[in-house]
Amino acid sequence: MNCRQLMTHEPAFCVPQDTVVTAAMVMKGQNVGSVPVISDRNSGHVIGIITDRDIAVRVVAEQREYYHTHVGDVMSKDVVTCKMDDDYDEVIAAMKENQIHRIPVVDSAKRLVGIIALADVARTHEPRTVGETVEEISQPSDARERESTGNYTKTSLLVAGGIGLGAGLIYLLDPRWARRAREAVASSAGKQDSTEDAKQ
What is d(CA 106, CA 172) in angstroms, rounded to the nearest whole number? Predict the structure, then answer.
């Protein structure tokens, strides 16, 4: 299977002149966490990607004015793309290596023609394969560890989403979150039992 068979056609996109508010509205409307950025609507050349994390870290955390901050100011320029005839295995390898959930698909002229998301992978492969892929994508990188101490480095495509397949995929998307939630519920149940015992 290749990217042409796997991709979603005509994905949403932004241009550098769009405001980050526009980008956020596109993400909300499409239920995704990242949007490819093209040079202009005529050429369609992919020049970057803007993620919800870019907006959180580079706009909100820096207290920039939303309506006066443009996509081109905060987008990630180190975008990972694939071509329509690239093999499925190459796409999975790129997701794992770069820890990303969505990859824009480009033609020979680097024009945006589609996008491949983890949801596309989930629909075409066994849950075990998808789970292994998500686990590798979710492994913390040195860059993430540096960022967690406040040393923000240039990142690209670290946060993406929009799988929209329901709460059943929460574990696949963030197994650590699922484990913490399960532990919290168990802890809460234990405290409730103790309270009931004390009352008796």
Answer: 27
